[in-house]
Amino acid sequence: MRRWFAAVAVLLTVPLFAQTFVFHLRGDQEVPPTGSVSSGGCMGQLDQVAATFQLTCVHDVVGATVMHIHKGAPGVNGPILHDLADPASPVTATWTGMTASDITDLLNGNLYVNIHTSGRPAGEIRGQILSRTVDLVSFTANGSQYVPPNSTSATANCTADLDNPAQFLAVQCTHDVPSPVSAHIHEAPVLQNGPVVFTFPSPNSPLNANVPMTPRLVADFAATFLYLDIHTGSGGEDTASPQIRGQIGTPPAGAGTGTIQIKKVSHPAGASGFGFTDNVSAPGTFTLNDGQTQTFTTVPAGTYTITENDPSASNYSLADLNCNDADSTSDPFSRTATVQLQAGETVVCTFSNLRADPTDTLFVFHLSSDQEAPPTGSPARGGCMGRFNAGASQLSIVCTHNVDNPTVMHIHKGAPGVNGPIVFDLGSPVSPVIATWSGMTAGEVADLLANNYYINIHTAGRPTGEIRGQVLPRTVDTVNFTMSPGQVVPTGSSPATGTCSADLDNPATSLAVQCTHTLPSPDLAHVHRAPFGQNGPVVFTFASAASPFSGNVPMTPRLVADFAATFLYVDVHGTGGSESTTTGEIRGQIGAPPSGPTTGTIHIVKTTSPAGGTGFNFTDNVPASPGTFTLNDGQTHTFTNVAPGTYTITELLPAGYSVTDIHCDDPGSTGNPFDRKATINLQAGAAVTCTFHNLRSFNSKIFVFDLSGANEVPPVPTTDRGGCMGQFDSATSSFSLVCTHNVADATVMHIHRGAAGVNGPILFDLGDPLSPVEATWTGMTPSDVADLMAGNLYINIHTSGRPTGAVRGQILPRTVDSLSFPMSGAQNVPPSTSTATGNCSVDLSDDAMSMRTQCRHNVVNATSVHLHSGPPGVNGPVAFDLPTAQFFTLTVPMTPRMVADFAAGFLYVDVHSTDAPQGEIRGQISGSAPALFGAPDAPTLSEWMALLFALSMVGVAVWRLRA
User: Fold this and answer.
1) Residue in 150, 339, 122 with CA at minimum distance from that of residue 230
2) pLDDT digits over 95-144, tens only?
3) Of residues 2 and 282, which shows the higher confidence score?
């Protein structure tokens, strides 16, 4: 009976008259094969009557970007027919509206599923959609397949047979496990543990059961993501011994494994003989030369350490250690990389070394904002150690800094206080920076030794330089500093204090640190690496923490640079203290803290489309400012030496133009294009730039249209949206456009030629695809204009995951015009529990200059009603204030930006109340319901229908009485 119910339950998941497809995905099916260790499986169900194909897939691809159904026979690559949307496993999708040709190709085996990644954009793994590529499987179980493996000698021989309708998996096993207590089927790829999906009635040999299968489990079976395990009396799911396990199927070679690559870089280039130890594989040691790579393949997922041997005997030190994986860590001071490897992943760790010859000429110097010409006021700091080898005529340098988002870093020629030309590019400016300037001329060497060079770090906000440091033999040497609980992060509460000194020796190989303190019962004392206000790793442990203590800290060039930058600190822990607690801890930064800036800078930039707009007037409340200024296109107004605070800059209503966007580069500042105002929260030392974007308005042909995935060819299953307003000026043959969208990671955005349902070539690049997008296409040809008027142009937004297009919109005079929409508490963000409701209707005027708006709601004690700009599920700024009455009708003035939001469905009405000041009910202006305007007490459509129904019933009753 229970089996009969299980069969019914499975049958209910399968469409009537469905044809099933069970197939696997591997790298060897790609054209050409990829060698990927990932795998996948799918179950598909075709309903020919409804012309739909339901698909459930699982896979273990790391970093999948997109997943499609393509047309193509085995061994042949073909076009995309259907986008399966989010490629994260498990993937479920339904392809509706299949053509007769699509169905024929499916039944003939001429369609395939392809999973793409950024590393393999043409395809990582692929599977031909066939009726059955996996059916009867023989497999073994033993202790070595367990995770982690065990040494049991028990084994099992098994088979698994999927029935024809793919509803049951018949599993049979014989085994020699002594005193088994349980046997299960689990879901997980090889070398991974997963949940139980079936328990055998008895674990005794022989095992025999029919496992009920869902589409997800069938996909797992095809992917080899099911396994059987048998437990004994002392074994459970959390113990390995003495259980046995068997993967149902044969995974691809190397499945469940990853790759580790260790790279060696030396400065100067050409060094050799760097030894390493590892716990990845035998023999556990290897040697690398500059430029070489040690690769470990088919490594099971897990945690591994790779340590470089101390290279000081060869006059080298490890200056930097970097791993490209966010889960892995690196410690250049212990010369150890800790790799957290996942199945299918490749982790690359680079060990960078710097040579230090005893005869080198040394330079130890700091970088700060007060050395810039003129000074910048930046709170950032930096430090460098340079070594000049006269015999090789080369300067090797290592620098550390805490500059946010550096763009470039150079060595310049110039005396202190003088700006000069670039003489050497230091490469990537990301800290730490390691470089070697080889082949220096006699004149360059003379300038170096005469202190006529400086290092400059540039940023986008300060392109002429953020911080600078003169290349001098020694700008920091002996430092006196104090320790206190106030320097601990977070701040400690101990009443203890300390006084210390740090002295760098002449060869810069040792830092003598001495401290006295009043901390009772000290436990540990360390030197750490981190700037002020941050915690960092331990680089030295003192032999004793008792006061007074001292120690000679061995210094690498990297640590010398940190010392010059004031990025080293001493801490002392009380009894019971640790690095994760601040109880009884005091700390002292080795060096004076940077003097904090007291003022900031504000830049206001004007840009217009088309270019060349003039006479844009602004008002501001910045202290010591006249309060007004005027900008033309491309100009910037700068406020310097501004005290920290909140300031507003407002653009007056520009004649013939509208404000489409205000972008501030500071996350604490905001721009509202609807009230034409930038609100700037200025911090000391900050430079905030706000750009006002204006679009010229033409009194000519208007286009209002939406963008969606459904308009793509073929359609893309995405919830992303967009909208545009375009204005064509026949006198100048120019087309101005403003668009808004919520496409994440848009890469490019174009105007293409092509009728609806047809893909075509690019005609015009709209520039930066970040929403909002404003652009003007000038110099249109008569053919371009004719296509525009005929509806044969479209806008396409492309992404890296969907390079052929994520959302598209045909440029038409009007694709959205008037509609009605409901309001409810559920639409608020976050949702409110209010039971109040409302309904609104809107109608965009023919000239798109206004929108008639009528709303009716039953919110009690409404305090404000607004029209906002924001997609569904997102809160946005107020675009217009609406009446608080429970019924109102008014006309909202519209800008091109607001019209674009309207077309995209990015406007909403929000009713605020005393009970819900953040919003009680909300209604997104979107949908396809027709607009319904009426008087305050006019019956709604549903009320009219009820009245007509009642009258008809009365008429029937009267007729029957008369009869």
Assistant:
1) 150
2) 999 999 999 999 999 999 999 998 889 999 999 999 999 999 999 999 99
3) 282
pTM of the model: 0.57
**Is residue 425 helix, strand or coil?**
strand
Query: In sequence order, what are the residues at sequence separation of 6 or more whose Cβ sits closer than 8 angstroms to the Cβ of residue 35?
Result: 27, 28
d(CA 216, CA 54) in angstroms, rounded, equals: 12
Residues 6+ apart with CB under 8 A from 407: 429, 458, 459, 460, 463
Q: Is the peptide bond before 644 cis (omega within 30 degrees of 0)?
A: no
Mean pLDDT rounded to a whole number for the chain:
90
Burial 471-487, CB ≥16 within 10 A → b, else e: bbeebbeebebbbbbeb
The fold of the 600-695 domain, in CATH, is Immunoglobulin-like (2.60.40)
CATH number of 479-590: 2.60.40
Neighbours of 619 (CB within 10 A): 15
CATH class of the 257-355 domain in this structure: mainly beta
Q: Residue 393 class from Cβ within 10 Å (0-12 exposed, 13-18 middle, 19+ buried)?
A: middle
Mean pLDDT of 716-731: 92
Report the chain's C-alpha Rg in angstroms. 35
Model confidence over 181-230: pLDDT tens digits?
A: 999 999 999 988 999 999 999 999 999 999 999 999 999 999 999 999 99
pLDDT for the residue numbered 345: 82
Which residue is listed with tokens 């055998």? Answer: 200
> How many Å from the N-terminal Cα to the C-terminal Cα in the chain?
59
Strand ranges inside 709-857, DSSP E: 721-729, 734-741, 746-753, 762-765, 773-777, 793-799, 807-810, 818-824, 837-844, 850-857
Residue 935 identity:
A
pLDDT of residue 935: 61
Q: Taking the CB of residue 637, how many other CB atoms lie within 10 A of it?
A: 17
Write down the domain spans for the chain. Answer: 18-129, 136-248, 257-355, 361-471, 479-590, 600-695, 700-811, 819-924
Residue 466, Ramachandran bin (φ over 0: left; ψ between -120 and 50: alpha; else beta): alpha
Q: pLDDT, tens digit, for every residue of 249-307?
A: 988 877 778 899 999 999 888 999 999 999 998 899 999 999 999 999 889 888 999 99
Residue 128 and residue 23 in contact, taking contact as beta carbons nearer than 8 Å: yes
What is the DSSP track for 602-635? EEEEEEEESS----EEEEE--TTS-SEEEE-TT-
Alpha carbon 578 to chain centroid, angstroms? 34
CB 290 within 8 A of CB 268: no
